[in-house]
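Researcher: Good morning. I'm working through a list of sequences from a screen, and I'd like to move beyond sequence-only analysis. For each chain I'm collecting a predicted structure so we can compare shapes side by side. This is the next one on the list. No need for commentary yet; just the structure.
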Amino acid sequence: MSKIVSESRERIVVLLLCLLAGIHVFVFSAAFPFFNNMDELFHFDLVVKYSRGHIPRGLELVSDETMRYGPVYSSPEFLCLPGFFSDDQFPPPPWKYSAMSANENPQGRIDWWWTVVRDSKKSWRNYESSQQPLYYTLAGLWWDVGQWCGIKGLHLLYWLRFLNILFVSTLVWLGYMAARLVFPEIFFVRLGVPAVIAFMPQQAFYSVQNDVLSPVCFAVAFICLIKWLGAERPEVRLGILTGLALAATFLTKMSNAPVLGVSALAVFLKTWRVCRAGKLRAWLPGLAALFFSAALPVSGWLIWSKYAFGDFSGTAAKLQAIGWTVKPFSEWWHHPIFTFNGFWTFLSELLAAFWQGEFCWHANPLDLPIVDAFFVVPSICFTVLAIRALLSRSSNLNLFQRYTLWFGFLCFVAGVGFLAFLSIRFDFGTCPNPSRDHPYFIAGRLLLGALVPFLLFLLYGIHHLLRGAKSQWLELTALAAILLFMLISEIVTDWSVFQSPYNWYHS
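Model: Good morning. Structure tokens for this chain:
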């Protein structure tokens, strides 16, 4: 097919998408008040601690500095209904009916805050303390910059959340670079990957939490890794960069372990093939550079976790705090996920959360069934089409593209399998979500590490469906329709949030 735009204009289009992604994240980040139901307060607490150079040792209490912000600027709209209050209306924000500020430590409001949380140990002890340090280090530096610039109070909180603008805009560009590397001849995929990222209605992008950094780190690792795997003789510099990107992915979040496991498998298989071909000696410098660049930072954090939290993953204390216990192996097989209805419940809710997020609003999930169906059903259909194309000899894919698409698909499947395993393995006790009544670990944000490789896979499935079209404009029209639906559905879904008196627009 002929090129629609020149390479220079194509880059300008992608830069425009980076700008639109930043605007998108800004508009919706400013609409959501603090602190959301995805443990944003605890993630904020870690940012504050890291900004002071303090790395938690054990599940520490929420810091006094955090408590100067939480009681004043938190909104009850996420988890409460208006009927919870005496006049069936949410109370006005504290900063609107008094002279209180987060830095004045209003004792009355703090006493009220402790009245709300003191009955539950897990509510005031930060069970996110064992999270890996990379996001909190970067966000802590950003927090310090905001303070040095004289930003205070609620504006300082939003300044911290607006760091996600940089992360998502960078992710758009990385998505383009990955698509350009794998599909230099398919304009639809090259444009589609960054465009979908720019308009993706994932609520994790509007929150202070480490999930937003996972796709950025692994996108870098993915680009470096496929270059490393495809090289005749990988350079030491490329090996170091690949290893550091993989280490950064791990140091962002433990839930990125599945994509790292698939990456390790890909490296092992490549090494095995090189060894069989008698070229291992030429590969050793690049292989050693990758291994040690990844292993040293990862090992350092694992040792710290063992010292500070009692186990290498740092999760044992957290599981105890939230009340999860490991079920006997014999009870695993009674899980409803092994039934058709149970598996569909798990998969459909997980895919919906992967695309949109898991925020609640007025004590109900912030989503719409018809929008969920739009994301779930096409995702499955396009996945099937992409698999069919990979298994077909008539798809005009070269060996590099086939391997890369399988790699991206396995990264996503490994993440889904990991969450299914957690659903089966644990008794969730009194935890509200997941729970004993609904024992499905459907935290779609935990799959975001595989976002870029999975979008490559998914968009190629759409391209394969429309490959018979005589013009690329049909593909671009389909892409425009998808983006328009994503944007309109997100506005409709989140419209009530924009009316919140607790958000940045009403500050």
